[in-house]
Amino acid sequence: MAQVTTSTHKKTLIQPTLRKPLRKSSLNGWLFASPWIIGLLLFYAYPLISSMYYSLTTYSILDAGEFVGFKNYTELFHDELFWKSISNTIYFAVFFVPLSILFGVSLAMMLNMKVKGLAIYRTIFFLPTLVPQVALAVLWMWLLNPGFGLVNGMLDSVGIQGPNWLGSMNWSKPSLILMSLWTIGQPVIIYLAGLGDISEEYYEAAEVDGASWFQKTRHITLPLLTPVIFYNLVMGLIGAFQQFTLPYTMTQGQGTPANSLTFYVMHMYDNAFKYFKMGYGSAMAWILFVIIMILTAIIFSTSKRWVHYQGE
């Protein structure tokens, strides 16, 4: 009995000594993580909850406002410019996202070839991504100028009269899509990483079977690249619905001509920071959040049908 008592007594003495270091390490962990946690609460959680509340009020920077329920949301659906901005944004997303995937994959496959000076070519195609959006907009405004722009100058040299790219309702959005495709260097890098992850054994087995380049691309490269395409599809769609800097800089915030370049985030920005209708702008932000979430959920739900992973 004495031994049992002694053994039990020893256990009761050991347990507190084990708990103290655990509690201390846990406290140290929370202390190290506290800057991130505080930042998350201050700069993400609090603004998120505040914007949800403000969307139900007439709050502005100069006035505390009053609670109006869903009045801001109902007014949105009667705002003609709201629908115009949505249609412009959808038009941009429908054309830009597929084209960015098409050109991005094609360019990545070319840059994946084993040729001399490949690193230089990859650097050249990635450099436009480093150019700030404002500088890029100014550059393209000069290139597409109808009077002295380089693009119309080249067309005139072959007897073609170039259009007023940024001053025409028919050409303003295609011009913006062209400008945005200039910055697909970052997705190309991701595609290159995906191509490098595909095992050479698949291609060697296909060559033994006498497969052509087109057959290898169709049955090996593209299917095994679908996880990367899926990622860039989601990110490209989110970025397309948040288009702001290029059209705002080109039109100086006016969305001209005839609001053909007024995008959703531009309209939201004007209401919140130009007209100080913070409640109305917050409601627009939540509508945008719902739209992006629905589209992202649709893409995720359909991904099982066309996204293929190695080893499956």
TrEMBL record:
One Gene Ontology CC term in the entry: plasma membrane
Pfam families for this protein: BPD_transp_1
Subcellular localization, as worded in the UniProt entry: Cell membrane
Annotated ranges, domain ABC transmembrane type-1: 86-299
UniProt record, GO biological process: transmembrane transport
Glycosyltransferase among keywords: no
Membrane topology: Multi-pass membrane protein
Transmembrane segments: 29-49, 90-111, 123-143, 175-194, 222-241, 278-300
Keywords: Cell membrane, Membrane, Transmembrane, Transmembrane helix, Transport
Protein family according to the UniProt entry: Belongs to the binding-protein-dependent transport system permease family.
Protein name per Swiss-Prot or TrEMBL: Sugar ABC transporter permease
Organism annotation: Peribacillus psychrosaccharolyticus
Lineage of producing organism: Bacteria, Bacillati, Bacillota, Bacilli, Bacillales
